[in-house]
């Protein structure tokens, strides 16, 4: 790409406006581990929500979405759209419980909820397992995407990209702690969103120029939807072959359709049926964990109240699934016109590393059509996307390694300054491991499926432990072991099965294993369970006897949790997100297919009704959370 000095100035300004404010937060973050890893539990809902959104918008996200659209059509996005069910469930069923628990990390929760050596083993093992392995694997995915983008845009070798991003991210993560991450995320969110909207618009401008000889974005949108409405993706029967486009005849997946072609049973199972029926509750995936967890839990725990925890998580889910997808999808659809196959991407960038070229390379390839000024904004946006995710994962992973492993098991009597310095040192080590892992990966889809596979079958447990006393630390150990073993064994014994079938078998085996353990394995110490009930006040018949022993009335639990209202909020929240997401899509498609307007307006009406219900429920729960916090503050003051 031809990059002018104006672009470099804009890119530098974008970086400075994000990172300079974080420089002034080092003193506050260095005061204690609570400040460094949890921002002193004083984060408002809007900042927590913005940070969650910014973190999940990493440099690999638009690449991954582009790959799904090019390989499976727009319907391929159901692989992550299905997790709306998970995210909104976290808002209404779990966000307040997490904040009520008072722990610093979600792993500290294990020794609040479970008892004995098994609880300590789970906490220590998952600190290393998630903080090091899973965390670095995710950062490796993000780094791989950065390497692909930098290779196409600037011709940089992977090691050069790794060094540049590493110096920037590690320095700030180690310097400013979670406060710095939150502030950087807040500013980066707006830069990233502006950049991806610009990418979508100028991609449409290029489509208009190519199809009609006019550099007009609105014309480009009309021509894009007209052209692609007649095309489908046909999956090749040859192993590892790339899908191809053909005229729509019912034998493939229509490009623009938002639902799969159910006559293609294997494809429909993978991209829609498995995610909507199983994955959202059964699979553990960072950012969309059943029951909440990882850096989402970190933000909830850092929130200054239950109300802020609920509000921030709700804002995150709406922004994550409604505001962001369509700029990525439009850019991906434009790439089909401009680069119909991988050979055309390679031809357009002859100096790019052929081993890095894939369908996920089409997104950075479309950025060559950005005009002067917007190129610089996109460079700043891509760096922001990379940094917001890497910074979060460095701080989150470091919190596990330091607070839940080093401080808990290795050195228990260190000063706060010692643990903060240990956290800063661990960020360096985490990035080095992640960088090395990135060099072993080939595509975002491959890494996505590996993560889903390793966590298959554990998700139901992470929800059930809030509602059923029989879930024990041994259940967690069995679930972790079985999910890892089945991720290796099932593909070995079923070599011809597709990813969806393998995942379903894994989920079945792992779920049965931990359920059996719940009934026949060792149980949690009764005193620990009673203390948990008194502190968190969990809802459900699974705690009835223990609530009586703890002196916590059913009326008090009902008042604290409002489970009926939570169910209404969950359903209406999911409807709000999906109706608005698909209404936007149909309005966009209507430029080339006016018949889509009817569907768009029907979805808008559904959005209005469900939005009213969601608003009323949220207001009620916010009021209840405020009252609950006041009661808790009064109790603490009395004690």
Task: Describe this protein's structure.
By secondary structure, this protein is mainly α. Helices cover 74% and strands 2% of the residues. The chain contains 28 helices and three strands. Strands 2-1-3 form a three-stranded antiparallel sheet, covered by helices on one side. Helix 9 (116-154) runs antiparallel to helix 20 (444-454). The chain is globular. The chain starts with a helix and ends with a helix. The model has no long low-confidence stretch (mean pLDDT 84).
Overall 3D shape: globular
Pick out the low-confidence regions: none
Beta-strand content: under 5%
Q: Tell me roughly what share of residues is in helical segments.
A: over 70%
Distance between the termini: 65 Å
Q: Give the count of helical stretches.
A: 28
Biggest β-sheet: strands ordered side by side in the sheet: 2-1-3
DSSP strand count: 3
Roughly what is the average pLDDT, rounded to an integer? Answer: 84
Q: Based on helices, strands and strand pairing, what is the structural class?
A: mainly alpha
The profile of the biggest β sheet is: 3 strands, antiparallel
Give Rg in angstroms. Answer: 24 Å
Q: What structural keywords apply?
A:
mainly alpha, three-stranded antiparallel beta sheet, 28 helices, globular
């Amino acid at each position: 790409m031809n990059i002018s000095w104006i672009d470099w100035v804009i890119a530098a300004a974008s970086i400075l406006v994000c990172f300079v404010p974080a420089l002034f937060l080092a003193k506050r973050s260095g005061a204690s581990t609570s400040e460094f890893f949890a921002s002193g539990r004083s984060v408002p809902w809007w900042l927590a929500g913005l940070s969650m959104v910014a973190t999940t918008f990493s440099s690999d996200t638009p690449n991954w979405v582009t790959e799904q659209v090019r390989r499976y059509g727009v319907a391929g996005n159901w692989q992550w759209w299905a997790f709306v069910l998970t995210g909104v469930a976290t808002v209404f069923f779990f966000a307040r419980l997490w904040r009520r628990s008072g722990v610093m990390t979600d792993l500290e929760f294990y020794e609040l909820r479970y008892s004995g050596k098994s609880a300590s083993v789970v906490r220590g093992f998952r600190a290393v397992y998630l903080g090091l392995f899973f965390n670095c694997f995710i950062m490796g995915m993000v780094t791989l995407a950065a390497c692909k983008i930098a290779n196409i845009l600037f011709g940089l070798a992977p090691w050069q990209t790794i060094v540049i991003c590493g110096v920037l991210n590690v320095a700030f993560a180690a310097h400013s702690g979670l406060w710095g991450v939150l502030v950087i995320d807040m500013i980066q969110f707006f830069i990233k969103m502006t950049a991806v909207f610009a990418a979508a618009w100028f991609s449409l401008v290029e489509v208009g120029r190519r199809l009609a000889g006019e550099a007009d974005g609105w014309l480009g949108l009309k021509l894009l939807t007209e052209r692609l409405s007649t095309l489908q993706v046909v999956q090749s029967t040859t192993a590892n072959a790339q899908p191809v486009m053909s005229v729509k005849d019912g034998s493939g997946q229509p490009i623009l359709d938002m639902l799969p072609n159910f006559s293609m049973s294997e494809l429909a199972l993978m991209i829609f049926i498995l995610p909507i029926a199983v994955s959202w509750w059964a699979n553990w995936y960072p950012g969309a964990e059943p029951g909440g967890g990882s850096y989402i839990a970190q933000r909830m725990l850092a929130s200054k109240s239950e109300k802020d925890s609920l509000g921030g998580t709700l804002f995150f889910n709406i922004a994550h699934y409604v505001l962001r997808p369509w700029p990525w999808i439009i850019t991906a659809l434009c790439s089909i016109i401009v680069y119909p196959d991988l050979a055309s991407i390679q031809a357009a960038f002859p100096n790019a590393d052929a081993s890095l070229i894939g369908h996920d390379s089409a997104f950075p390839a479309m950025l060559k059509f950005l005009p002067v000024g917007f190129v610089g904004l996109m460079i700043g946006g891509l760096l922001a996307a990379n940094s917001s995710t890497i910074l979060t994962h460095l701080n989150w992973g470091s919190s596990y390694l330091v607070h839940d492993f080093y401080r808990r098991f290795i050195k228990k009597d260190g000063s706060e300054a010692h643990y903060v310095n240990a956290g800063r040192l661990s960020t360096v080590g985490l990035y080095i491991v992640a960088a090395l892992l990135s060099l072993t990966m080939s595509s975002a889809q491959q890494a996505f499926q590996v993560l889903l596979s390793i966590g298959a079958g554990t998700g139901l447990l992470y929800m059930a432990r809030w509602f059923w006393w029989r879930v024990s630390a041994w259940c967690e150990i069995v679930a972790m072991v079985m999910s890892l073993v089945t991720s290796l064994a099932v593909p070995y014994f079923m070599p011809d099965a597709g990813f969806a079938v393998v995942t379903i078998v894994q989920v079945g085996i792992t779920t049965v294993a931990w359920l059996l353990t719940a009934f026949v394995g060792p149980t949690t110490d009764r005193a620990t369970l009673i203390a948990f009930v008194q502190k968190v006040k969990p809802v459900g018949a699974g705690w009835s006897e223990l609530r009586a022993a703890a002196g916590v009335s059913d009326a008090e639990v009902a008042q604290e949790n409002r489970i009926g209202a939570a169910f209404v909020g969950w359903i209406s929240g999911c409807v709000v997100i999906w109706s608005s997401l698909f209404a936007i899509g149909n309005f966009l498609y209507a430029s080339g297919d006016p018949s889509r307007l009817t569907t768009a307006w029907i979805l808008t009406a559904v959005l209005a009704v469900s939005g009213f219900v969601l608003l009323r429920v949220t207001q009620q729960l916010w009021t209840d959370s405020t009252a609950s916090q006041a009661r808790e503050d009064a109790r603490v003051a009395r004690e």
